[in-house]
Design a protein that fits this description.
This protein is α/β, with parallel strands linked by helices and 262 residues long. The chain has 10 helices and 9 strands. It has helices at 20-33, 50-57, 69-78, 113-123, 143-146, 156-165, 180-199, 206-212, 218-227, 230-245; strands at 2-4, 8-10, 40-44, 61-65, 85-88, 98-104, 124-135, 168-176, 254-261. The strands form 2 sheets. Strands 5-4-3-6-7-9-8 form a 7-stranded mixed β-sheet, with helices on both faces. It has a two-stranded antiparallel sheet with strand order 1-2. The longest helix has 20 residues, at 180-199.
């Protein structure tokens, strides 16, 4: 396991490397996290646990909720020497336990997203912060959505209204990923079309697909040497800057919001 100064945790020995899309989102998330005072933080759907590692290194006392057994195994390995993180397969009695909640690419996997937001609201202390990311624009629905267990993509106004309706004040809203995420998405769609053809009905396999979301890195493992080269790192830094310039548009592949519990 290594720590890359630009990409964060890399654990090729267990088949996990940071994908470009993950890195684009991580870049924007860590910039927003700089505005938060470290406290008791819950990450919902922590996946491989790389981001929770980043957050714990920034002083947050972290709890991670992850229902996928395989993801928890990778996350536990990545955080094996990290005493500031606790992992759970199921939610506990967490009423007003946390100062911050992070839920990245999670809401779209939950059939009743309103109920999920209500639960998360109850887990936050008064004045607590929530950081959420979701895929943008239902018109962009594709095989990659079906093959990772999504129920929907989101529109800006509807997401803001839903967040406010469930008791939050919006502090920050942006679009992330443009232009790199848009460039690589057709390749993702092609990859996941093959997966759907192999596994059949997406609805019947939704739980399985969700469990693998965020940790399946077969293709990414092959291209990671290029991504980690001096040229790849330079290019990724360029795309980090570009997505920041376009963060106020709706051109990217996802929305990211920071909100406060009223």
């Amino acid at each position: 396991m290594d720590f890359h100064k630009t990409y964060g945790i890399v654990a090729q020995e267990v088949g996990w490397v940071p994908a470009p899309g993950y890195l684009l989102r991580r870049n924007r998330v860590l910039k927003l996290v700089e505005k938060l005072n470290p406290g008791q933080l819950l990450e919902i759907g922590c996946g491989a646990g790389a981001l929770i590692f980043d957050l714990s290194q920034r002083g947050f006392r972290c709890t991670a909720l992850e229902t996928s057994r395989k993801a928890r195994e990778i996350a536990s390995y990545i955080n094996s020497k990290n005493e500031n993180v606790k992992f759970y397969a199921n939610a506990g009695n967490w009423i007003e336990c946390f100062d911050q909640i992070v839920a990245l690419e999670v809401l779209e996997h939950i059939e009743d997203d309103h109920a999920a937001l209500k639960s998360w609201y109850s887990w936050l202390k008064p004045g607590g912060k929530i950081l959420v990311s979701v895929p943008a624009h239902q018109r962009k629905w594709g095989a990659d959505d079906a093959a990772v267990g999504h129920y929907r993509r989101y529109e800006k106004d509807a997401l803001i209204q839903m967040t406010k309706k469930n008791g939050f004040d919006i502090e920050h809203f942006e679009n992330w990923g443009f232009p790199l995420a848009n460039i690589i998405r057709p390749l993702r769609i092609r990859k996941y079309k093959r997966k759907l053809n192999q596994h059949g009905d997406a609805d019947k396999s939704r739980d399985l697909y969700s469990a693998e979301s965020g940790i399946e890195r077969t293709v990414e493992m092959k291209v990671y040497p290029l991504q980690a080269s001096w040229f790849g790192v330079l290019a990724m830094k360029l795309f980090f800057g570009l997505q920041g310039l376009f963060s106020r548009t709706e051109l990217g592949e996802g929305f990211l919001l920071l909100a406060t519990k009223k």
